[in-house]
Structure formats: structure tokens, C-alpha cells
Amino acid sequence: MALEDPFSILEKYLSAEEYVVVGREFTRVDALDKALGRALFTEDYFIRYLQGNALFIKQVLSPHPHALIKAIHVDEAMGVAGVKAVVTHRDIPGVNQVGYALPDQPLLAERKVRYVGEVVALVAAESWEKAVEASQLVKVDYEPLPYVLDPLEAMSRTDILVHDEAGSNIAFKTRVRKGDVEKGFAEADVVVENEYRTHHQDHVYLETEAALAIPDSEGRITIIGAAQHPHLARDIAARVLGVPAGRVKVVVPYLGGGFGGKDDEGPLTISKAALVAYLTGRPAFIVYSREESIRIHPKREATIIRYKSGARRDGKLTAIDVTIIHDTGAYANRAPFILWRATMHASGPYEVPNARVDGYAVYTNKVYQGSFRGFGNPSIQFAVERQMDQLAEKLGLDPVEFRLMNILRPGSRTLTNQELDHSVGVGEALKKVAERSNWISKRREFDAFNKAEKRFKKGIGVGVAWHGISTSRGVPDWSNAVLKVEKDGSVVVFTGIVEMGQGSPTSSHVQIVSEILGVPPEMVRVVFGTSDAPDTGATHASRGTGIGGIGVEVAAGKIRERLARLAGDLLGVEPDKLVFREGRVYPRDNPERYIRWVDLVREAYARGVELSATGYFFLPKGKFDDTTGQGFAYPAFSYIVVVSEVEVDTETGVVRVTRVWPALASGRIISPLQVEGQVEGAVAQGLGYTLFEKLVFDERGGIVNADLTDYVIPTALDMPVVEKPIYVEDVYKYGALGAKGVGEMALIPLPASIANAVSHALGVNVTRLPLTPEYILQLEGVLRR
Amino acid sequence: MKVSFKLNGRPVEVDVEPNEILLDTLRLKLGVTSVKRGCERGECGVCTVLLDGEPAYSCLLLTAQVEGREVVTVEGLRGDELAEKIARSLVEQGAVQCGFCTPGFILTIYAGLKKGLIKNVEDAKKLIEGNLCRCTGYLKILKAVEKLLA
Ligand code: FES
Ligand code: FES
Description:
- The complex is a heterodimer of chains A (785) and B (150).
- By secondary structure, chain A is of the alpha+beta class.
- Chain A is built from 22 helices and 31 strands.
- Chain A has a 7-stranded mixed sheet with strand order 3-5-1-12-9-10-11, with helices on both faces. A 5-stranded mixed sheet of chain A has the order 7-15-14-13-8, sandwiched between helices.
- In chain A, helix 8 (230-241) runs parallel beside helix 9 and helix 20 packs across helix 21 (750-762).
- Chain B has 5 helices and 5 strands, in the order ββαβββαααα.
- Chain B has helices at residues 22-29, 81-92, 102-114, 121-127, 139-149, and strands at residues 2-7, 10-15, 48-51, 54-57, 70-72.
- A 5-stranded mixed sheet of chain B has the order 2-1-5-3-4, with helices on both faces.
- The site of one FE2/S2 (inorganic) cluster (FES) has 12 residues of chain B, from loops.
């Protein structure tokens, strides 16, 4: 069945003469239901179907940054009328271990607590009020321990250990060794060296974490809950319960945003609900208040990045020497993966012959580090792109010109010495966006403006970024989907990809099926977010369409091969010469001699042609050497360039971003409307991160601003104009129809582009985020540091 | 205590606690799931309802306060021409992503248009400032309003 080989299917649809659904305007199928308030989110299922039957779960949190748990007294809490269970680590029937990368994290604290906000117990009661009341009666005897909050301090101390068994507070290290760094710096005519700092950001998905667990009579449990990878959530819950994975089913309904946060916290939320349901035999519902959400779930990490780079007078980069320190907080969670990503992107999308990069993920007694749109990449691209601007300045080159001299192109070798053979459109994107934004004349115009004007200063800055698609270091990754054609011709697809706002299952997947099988979108239904679908991997890393869509494409491609053979027989035409379009199948040269899709399907059923298929595809990868950080890092990179224009009020220190020009080299654009939405949304989230969103910690590591009054996110008034993105469709041969991924992209270079624009406006060296009025005034020398 | 008010055109009577917020009454007791819970302190706008035609955060209202008044949610605007136009425009412009905030935006925009408070995009921007959206970056929401004004 060579025709059904996934590689030939991917090749076949990579470059069609014409796409009729893909790349065109398309209304996502879930939009109207959501607008009219008919779409159900996790808590809505509870309200509709299980209220009055399900127990409420309230969490008991640690008030200490670091303390031994001497005893937990539950009797008084159990005595409250309506309380059905107080669950602590002792009650966990399976394994109290939920760390994704390292086995360092309990679901419920055991032996000691490591941050203010760590979950120690769960109280389950018939009513919310009783659960809250009883949660206050759970008495924990703590023996406070000395704690450490600053990552630099934590790195150098062993007398205070966040994890005693680790013997050090360094949770994980990474490194890259390429070429000869000393020689590289000796060849450099200019060298720039800085220390950069970035801060914690909260996701603020408007829907907080929630899960509803329903036990059934046969010892199985179904959980409807907010997560980004139903299979992972299922596996973690099964481990905690000590039952085979097949006994747990996870369904992820519509999510009110995810941004990575629900990828980390989702399986834990789901496990908590599952645990209570399992122990009590009752349905159980957990929902985090906004305050709990901010206190408990992992954050975009704070970082310290020391960066030295050199270049020759002819504009060529010669060497980089980079140290990356991540404030990992209490648990490793996905810190090693985040650190690897930061490490392998530490050169930016440029050719660098000599490189030394060292990364450290450092435990501290604070809320821990986690997945957040960009995954360790925005902070390192901020450092890279600040360096690039300063090198250009020292060399007397225009920042864009200097970048173009070093930019990756087909045939280039990356930081990890991986050769990029195709799908490298970043240079073209940079050229085009510089042109579109009138880069050169704007730079000059603003320089002149700033000379004449005292109070307001204008700046324009560029940020270029790359983002490896799929998992780092050749770690196995795959796509899958099950597709079936029903007797009436309608098509049902099962995928584990979730719908969290990005629209892959409700837009791009539908478009792919509609394109390949030629059926109208109304006939396609994508069942998403269920662990009953084959494992499709997580909906993170911008992979919902680019990788998640491969399974859909391959499955649809297989069905099309079968139906093309059948239609070829019926019409007496070569299968290759057939067109599938708008519910008809016909020879390319004779559209009038068609067979209707529904009739073709009926024939297939009558003649024994199987109309169900799986779309399994295992991404080809290469070898990577962890000790040198050299080798195959990612199957391909998605690229983006962002130019930002700012206006700074030098009296108040307020920065206003006025306009943003994005240019994507992300392969095929399947759904332009959704891509624009991802870009604009990422600009908003990135703008908040760059200008004002910042978690503030007290002297005990507790979060001071754990509400939306004090942790402020952008409103409509903060938004700049975002120009229509420029697309360089540098298709990737193993992406869905050549797509690489967009979801995270605009957030990655945005902080850099704004920082560069502010540096340009004020003639200063921005090295820290966020760009608060206070920091701006310090840079101006008005305020002392 | 018993509270009576008009919900989406129909009279309702509910038994509530004196400190019960309207958001809970609507969601938990009356099954109105389009009104969402996001912060419970008047910061996000996903709990927006129309109270006597004015947008209001239902998390900041005690149910007791709406005695005798009129509460409208998107469920109550089914068949309303203006509301359907707004919904369609949001859908067409790609202004709906996760959708958690969308019913709240529809109500705010509906009230604004009805009262003639939105003459241009700038007016719309100011009006929707009290509704947060973490997904769209607001631009497509504003574009949807702009299309309606045209
Ligand atoms: S829930 Fe009412 S404003 Fe956020
Ligand atoms: S669409 Fe997700 S919060 Fe607005």
C-alpha cells in the first residue's frame, strides 16, 4: 500500500497547484456557539449535569516557603457536617509523584513544603461553603526551615537545600560547546557584554483551572477537565490512583485559554478531582479561585542572562559566550525542557561559528517555573537581540543590515551545528518587513524628531526570532488522528489536540479534511481533546496545527487514495486525474462527468472499501549529544520578525507601543484569520509582559499581587496598531501541508523589539524587563537605581 | 431570602443568601452558563450582564440588589436583531478565540450601540476597557464593531 505511505501523502499535498479551502478565509466552526454562550466549559458541565450530586473540593495551601510537615490533623475538619473527605499524601493509593521531567514533585505535599501556596490537602464536602469552612480547620504542624528566594544565592549555597536529596539547588544544567570561543573573541573587532534580567509572568487565562471527575460502576473514572494534553493528564491521574491508564478517561472541553499554563497544571487539577472521586465514589468538582490560580500554578520563569558576543568589522559574528540562569522555583516541572530550549536558541537565528552556552535551572522556595507561550525563548531572544543592536551600533551598521549579514539561510549550520536544508525564510521575512515598515527612513525621521523634541521621544526597533518545532534534542514526537467516513458521507475525526482558543481542531483541521476529501466543512466534525483518540501529543509548542494536523492530513490522504481508486474504476479514469471538490469527484478535464461524494461513499460501503484510517506519523529526527550540545536539535524552525514603534514620555517614564509590523516565515498558512488572531493575541500578551505584567514576591516568597487588581493585564486601550502579517510561506516538508506553527511566535521577539525601540528612542541600554515607568526614569538617570 | 426579578424577559423568584452574588445565583441556581466566572472582584468582565439595560459585573452585585429589576444575558437576546448582528460580526472578523469573554463583550457592545454611545472605534475602545480578553488582543473585536458602524 505504498500509496498510503504517510511520506508520500505528505509530499503529495505539500504543494498543490491550487488550494480551495486551505489558505482562504474560513469561519471556524465553534465561533457562533461561543459568541452566543452555548459552548460549555468545564464548570458549565458541572452546573448543567452534576450540581447537587458532585462534591466540592477546596485546597489547603502552605503558608510557609519552606517547612517540615510534622503532622496533619484532619479530625476537626472531618467533623464539619457535609464533609466527606480530607485527603492528604497518606491517602494516595498510587504514587504521589507528578514531576514531568524529574521525579521531584508530589501531588500533595509530603514531608515538607517548598513554596507559599503549595497544596497540602484537599477537602471535599457537599457544599462549597462547608468545604471552605473545613479547609480552615485542617491543622498542619509545620517546622519552619530557612529558605532561599534568590537564584544566584541558591546556586552558591548548599546549607539550604530546596530538595535535600539533590545535594545542590541546581536542578538541571545544559551546555553547548561549538568551535573555539577564545579564538572567536580574539578575531572580534567589537565585543559587547551585558547582564539581562527578566521576570515572572502569569498566564491569566480568563477561565481558571477546573476539573470534574465522575466515577462509574466498573471502577473507571472519567474526568472532564482543563488540560492541554488529555493523554498525559490521564497517565498522571492513573499513576496517582494506582490503576491502569485504560481505566481513566480524560475529556478536555472548550478551554478559556491555556497558553501553556494548563499543560502543566491541568494534569494536577485533573488528578486532584480524580483522587477525590476515586476515594469517595462520588463525582467531584474542583475549581481554582483567581487567587489560588495565581498562587499555585507554574509561571513564566524569571531569568538572569549573561551574554558576551563579538563580531568582525566586516559584520560577521565570531563568538558568543552565554550563561542562562532560570529561577526554577520549588519544583523542576518542565524546567529542563524550557532550559534546553533557551540554550539551543541562545544564538538567535544567526550563524555563529564559536559558542559556549551554559544553562542552569535553579531551585528556589517560590512558585515554580512552567510552560508559557514561547517556553524559555522570549527571554533569550531579548538578550540576543539587544546584543545584536549594540554590536551593530559599535560597527556603525544599520541593525537590519547587520542581522542580514548573519541570518540563517538554507544550508546554514545552527548553534548546535545542525544543517538546515530547507524551510528557512527568515532573511526574506526580515527584508520584507524592513521595507514595509519603512525602516530606514523611520530610523532617520525619529532621530531627527528626538533631537528637536524634549519631552516625547520616538523609537523603532526590530526583533528576530526562531523557534524550533516539536520537542528539543530529537526527543520522539509524533502525530496521529482517526478519521472515519460515515454512511451518509459525513466525516468524523478524533484527535487529542485540544481547543483552547487557537482553533486548530475547529478551523485548520476541518480545512485540511475539507481540502483533501472535497467535502463541505459542514460535513466534517472534529472530536477533540479526548484520551479516547490516539495520543496526539500536547497542544503546546505551537504544534496544534503544524504537527497535530499531520495526523489529520495523513488519515484523510489514505481515505482519499481508497476512494480515488474506487471512483477511478467507476468513471474509467486514472485515480491521479481525479479532483475531489465541493462534494463531487470528477476527472480534471471533465468536471461534468462527476460522481457525487455521497454516492461514492455508498458504493464504498457496498463494495467493502474500508473508510476508517489512522494518520500516525513519527517525525524523523537525528542524534543529539547532551555533553556538547551539538547535533540534531529540531526538525525545522519557525521564524518571525517583528518591528515595533514606540513613544516614550520622558517625564512620566511611560512607554506607549504605537505600531507593530509582524512577518512570519512559518511555512504554510492554513487559516489566515486564525493566524492573525494568534499574532495579535501574542502581541497583547507580550506587550503586557514587556511593559507592566510582573509578579511581585514578598520577603517570604509569597505572591503579593495575586489578583487582577494588582496584577494588571492589557486592555483594549493598551493595544498598538498591528499591521497585517507578511507571510513567507517557507513550507516544511513534514508539517501539515507544510505548516510549521504560529501560536507562540509573535510573543518571542516582541519584548526584544520593544526594548530595542526604547533604547533607540532614549539612546540608552535596556537590559531589564518590564519597562515600567520607574525603570525608564532610572535609565534616563532621573531616578536612582 | 426570596428575591424576584426579571431575567431575560421572564419573572423569576429565587431563594438566596443575603451575601450571595448575582453571578452565583445566575450560574448555580438559574443555570445561566453564558455568564462566566473569571476573577470575582470586578476586574475581568466575563460575568457581565445587563442590569436595566446597563452593563454590570454580576460578581459585584448582591442578588438582593436586583430585586424588582431587569437582568439580561446573551440567552435573552436570542432573536434580537442588533445582538445577532454583533455576534455575526464578531464571528466573521475572527474576534472569537476561546470565547470565554465573548458573551460579556456582546453585552457591553450591545448596550453601547443601543444607547448611541459608540460613534467610532475610539468610543468602542473606551467602552470595552472593562472587559478583558486574553486571547485576541482586542483588535478584531474592535474591527467587528467598526464594521457594524459602517
Ligand atoms: S468575574 Fe466579575 S469581573 Fe471578573
Ligand atoms: S477569546 Fe479568550 S479571553 Fe477573549
